[in-house]
Structure formats: structure tokens, C-alpha cells
Design goal:
four-stranded mixed β-sheet, alpha+beta, single chain, seven-stranded mixed β-sheet, binds 6-deoxy-beta-L-fructofuranose, globular, 19 helices, binds adenosine-5'-diphosphate
Length: 480
């Protein structure tokens, strides 16, 4: 039987890539066609995404990819572009780390109390959920002129095909979707004065999303027709689809700019306890729920590296491995670390404020970050199991953080569970496999995971060290 080729466009907060997946009945290979940086730009009005440069990267990537049977697009969540009545983009999309959402949640909760909002949408509180962004933008002329809102992957799909839609897994991060029905939360939108007509009709992974436009074929040197297939367009939905689990009793951590730590469930958990613990119910493939918590992730390290003039990461991680463990930890779930800038100082200040030794060298700060991430992974996975009544025997780590062996080992130690690390390009693989499934090459979700487990290089970490030290460190943060 034939092997098919699929292009996966995967845009993360730190880099974009176009990957080519070759899928056969019992084979799966992924190769990088093109990778390009994703650098937000600060202009007088705030922090913006350079979406035209990303689109140029996508076109260059498709050219490098060559002949493919279909294309799928995923990216980070929550952000969007606005189009005017002619379909033209109104300004650069606002970055979710922009300061415009500060203090907005309180205004929203005055209309729809936080508990009601959680019951209706299942989403954890994060200042950047699209609902808060739209509330922050309420009185802007740009929004007044907008006739359409397209989430980032939907915007790129529109530019590639001319067709508009709103992909469901990513739509679930707007906080305007009801996880129980998979449809818009009409009541919440109406009460907050958000016009759902701005959104294009919902589409689901597997739905067709049009054909590459003639100009796109010309620019990329491809021969048409080339279909674009809807995938789990939220990068985390695609990454979770590519967790190579062989049973049901697993937790996952998608590591990159963020750490998304949690479980795959068949129904949302909407209890008050779950809300208080700030767990989210995002939608995954086939009606599944991604029950997880956002943890600041390797963003903390990325920002420190930027402050230190981008030293060699490998060398720094070797030095950090030699620093004594758990001397100081910070709360890696704290939204205080969301904004860019001064990260080494902010981490040192958090240690000082909690009466712990203040890390000084770059190796000490790096160690503090990795210990803190492992501790946050431990907390999230323990709490998710309890709140969802879903015990696990193994933790799967996928994404860029799988290349950080120290982080993987510390996570195994902190969780007291075996860790299976890989694949690194999970979002791209999930993207490719949903396309392949749509074209009949692989079966259900479990088949897809078995194929990954058989074909992808995975690294196993066994928990080591003294579990009591992690309990002590956790207590140190809890008593603050
Ligand atoms: P995103 O999709 O959010 O942009 P990625 O999944 O690409 O993020 O992961 C990026 C992260 O992976 C970086 O912040 C870095 O910490 C980690 N990483 C990348 N390469 C290496 C490496 N060679 N060694 C250790 N960590 C790495
Ligand atoms: C990871 C991610 C995450 C969202 C954040 C905005 O790339 O999509 O799932 O919470 O970006």
C-alpha cells in the first residue's frame, strides 16, 4: 500500500515549522522542511505578533516541503486577527502576553460571576482567554470595524485557501464554547455583549478546509489541487493526540514555551473544587476533554536566556545539573511570570520574598527554574488525578522540553512515576496523523497512538531520589 505525505504547519510561541510526515500502514516518519523564529514585536500600542512574517515562513515551508497530499495547520491558542468587510486584516494580532487584559477579568466577573463562567465554559482563569481579550478591546475602533474574527490557524488557513471557519479545539480556548455541547456558549456571549456573528462557522478535525489558492500554488511551486485538512488546530490538542500512550492510565505534559499538564478525559470536570484548583477543560479530538493546568513552562528559561545574551543552552544545563537540588523554588503557575522582561531578577525576587536562598549565577537560576517546573508538574498531575478520579501509572512528556533530560528526570523524581519522553515534535505529528486518518490511512485514536509508540524514539526515566524532599519543597510554596 502507498505511503502518503502530509505537510504540518505548526506555529509555537517561540518558533514556527513546516514538517513533512510520511505515513504508511505501519510506518511514520517526520522530517523538517523549514523552521523559522517567531519573534513578537513591541510597538507603541503594545506587544504584537508579526503574522505576515509567519505567513511568509509558511509559504517558504510549503515550497521546501514539495509534493504533499494535504496540508494541516496548528498554532498556539487564544489569539486572533480581525478582518474588515472586505476580508482585509485590521492590524497586527495582539500577543496574549500584552498588558491590555490587566484588570479585565474583574469587570467580566461583575457581569458573569467566575463560578458561573466556569460552569458554562469549563475554562480555567487565564487573563488572556479570548473572552477577556475581546472585553479589553470592546471600545476600540478596530473591533467596531471588524466583521470577522479568525483565530491564528484559521487566519492562515483563510490566506492559503480563501475559506473561513473556526476550528473547534482551538475555539474551546476562547472561553466561549460550552464543553458539554461542543457548541457556542450563547448565554455567556450575550451577557458580555460579544457578537458571535464575528466568528466563522465551527469546523471539526477531519473537515475539509478548502484548496490552496492559485497564487499560493504559484508562490510555493506546488501543483494543485492541494487540499487543506482541518486538524486539531490548537497545538496542544494536536500534541495530546500524539501522546504515545499504550493504555488509558496516563498523564501528559506538553512542554515548550508552556507546560500543559493533565489528563485526557471523556467528560469535563466542572466542580467548584476543580475551578478553585484552576484546571481547564479544553476540547480534544473525537469529543475528548483536555483536563489540564497551564504552567509557565520553559518560557521562564527562554526569558532568562534572552536576558543573558543567549548563552549555549547545553552548557548551561550541564552546570545546572551540578547545582544542589531544591535550594529555592518559585510557583511556576503564578501569572506574575506571564509578562516578558527582567526574568532573572523576578525569579530572584520571588525567592527572596519567600525567605529562600536567592539564586545568583545563571546555573543557579536555571536550576531553580527546572526544580520549580518539576514541582509544578508534580502538583498538577497529583491534583488532576484526584479531581477527575482518574489514576495514572505513567507520565508522558512531549514537545521541545523532551530535549531537556534534566527536566525529564526531575519530573519523574517529583511525580514519583515513570516518565516516557517523546516525541519532541508532537504537535506536528498529531497534525499529520489527523490528516492521515481523514484520508483513511490510520484508524481510531488508540491506533494512532500505537503507531507512534512503535515508530517514534522514546526515552524512559525512572523516579530516583528522596520523595520526601519534593513534599518539603511543595510545603514551602504552599505556606507562603
Ligand atoms: P513552542 O512550540 O512553544 O515554541 P517548543 O516545543 O519548540 O516550544 O519547545 C521550545 C523549548 O525547547 C525551548 O524553550 C527550549 O527550552 C527547549 N529546547 C529546545 N532545544 C533544546 C535542546 N537542544 N536542549 C534542551 N532544551 C531544548
Ligand atoms: C501552547 C498554547 C497553550 C495555550 C497558550 C496560549 O502553545 O497553545 O495551550 O494556553 O499557548
Amino acid at each position: 500500500t502507498a505511503v502518503r505525505s502530509y505537510a504540518a504547519v505548526d506555529l509555537g510561541a517561540s518558533s514556527g515549522r513546516v514538517m513533512v510526515g510520511r505515513v504508511g500502514p505501519d510506518s511514520l516518519e517526520l522530517a523538517e522542511a523549514h523552521r523559522f523564529p517567531n519573534r513578537p514585536v513591541r510597538v507603541p500600542e503594545g506587544l504584537r505578533w508579526d503574522v505576515l512574517s509567519l505567513y511568509a515562513g509558511v509559504l517558504a515551508g510549503l515550497r521546501a516541503a514539495g509534493r504533499v497530499d494535504s496540508v494541516g495547520i496548528d498554532s498556539w491558542a487564544v489569539d486572533y486577527g480581525l478582518l474588515d468587510a472586505d476580508g482585509a486584516l485590521l492590524g497586527n494580532p495582539v500577543h496574549y502576553r500584552d498588558a491590555r487584559t490587566e484588570g479585565v477579568a474583574e469587570k467580566v466577573w461583575a457581569t458573569v460571576p467566575a463560578a458561573e463562567l466556569y460552569a458554562a465554559t469549563g475554562l480555567q482563569y487565564a487573563p488572556f482567554n479570548t473572552l477577556y481579550q475581546l472585553t479589553a478591546a470592546r471600545d476600540t475602533r478596530q473591533l467596531a470595524h471588524a466583521r470577522r474574527l479568525l483565530l491564528i490557524p484559521d487566519l492562515l488557513t483563510y490566506w492559503l485557501t480563501g475559506e473561513q471557519g473556526t476550528e473547534l479545539t482551538n475555539a474551546s480556548t476562547t472561553q466561549l464554547i460550552d464543553p458539554a455541547t461542543g457548541d457556542w456558549s450563547y448565554g455567556v456571549a450575550a451577557r458580555l455583549g460579544i457578537d458571535l456573528e464575528l466568528f466563522a462557522p465551527l469546523r471539526r478535525p477531519g473537515d475539509p478546509a478548502g484548496l490552496l489558492r492559485a497564487e499560493v500554488l504559484e508562490e510555493t511551486g506546488l501543483t494543485g489541487p492541494v487540499p487543506v485538512t482541518t486538524v486539531g488546530s490548537h497545538d496542544t490538542a494536536s500534541a495530546v493526540a500524539a501522546v504515545p500512550a499504550t493504555g488509558e492510565r496516563f498523564a501528559y505534559i506538553c512542554t515548550g514555551t508552556w507546560s500543559l499538564a493533565g489528563l485526557e478525559l471523556t467528560a469535563p470536570v466542572l466542580t467548584e473544587e476543580s475551578r478553585a484548583a484552576n484546571f481547564t477543560n479544553e476540547l480534544g479530538l473525537d469529543g475528548t476533554v483536555r483536563y489540564l493546568r497551564n504552567i509557565m513552562g520553559l518560557w521562564l528559561l527562554q526569558e532568562c536566556l534572552r536576558a543573558w545574551g543567549d548563552p549555549d543552552l547545553g552548557g548551561l544545563l550541564r552546570e545546572a545539573a551540578a547545582v544542589p537540588a531544591l535550594r529555592s523554588v518559585v510557583d511556576a503557575g503564578d501569572a506574575a511570570f506571564l509578562a516578558p522582561g527582567r526574568m532573572p531578577e523576578r525569579i530572584a525576587e520571588a525567592c527572596r520574598a519567600s525567605g529562600q536562598p536567592v539564586p545568583a549565577s545563571s546555573a543557579e537560576i536555571t536550576r531553580c527554574i527546572l526544580d520549580s517546573l518539576a514541582l509544578a508538574h508534580r502538583r498538577a498531575i497529583a491534583q488532576a488525578q484526584r479531581l477527575a478520579d482518574h489514576p495514572v501509572d505513567v507520565v508522558h512528556i512531549v514537545g521541545g522540553g523532551t530535549r531537556n533530560a534534566l527536566l525529564c528526570q526531575l519530573t519523574a523524581d517529583a511525580c514519583g512515576l515513570p516518565v516516557v519522553a517523546g516525541p519532541t515534535e508532537a504537535a506536528a505529528l498529531g497534525n499529520v496523523l489527523v490528516q492521515a486518518r481523514t484520508h483513511g490511512l490510520v484508524g481510531d485514536r488508540a491506533d494512532l497512538r500505537r503507531l507512534l509508540a512503535r515508530t517514534q524514539p522514546l526515552t524512559r526515566y525512572t523516579p530516583q531520589g528522596d520523595a520526601e524532599r519534593w513534599r518539603e519543597a511543595e510545603a514551602r510554596l504552599a505556606t507562603r
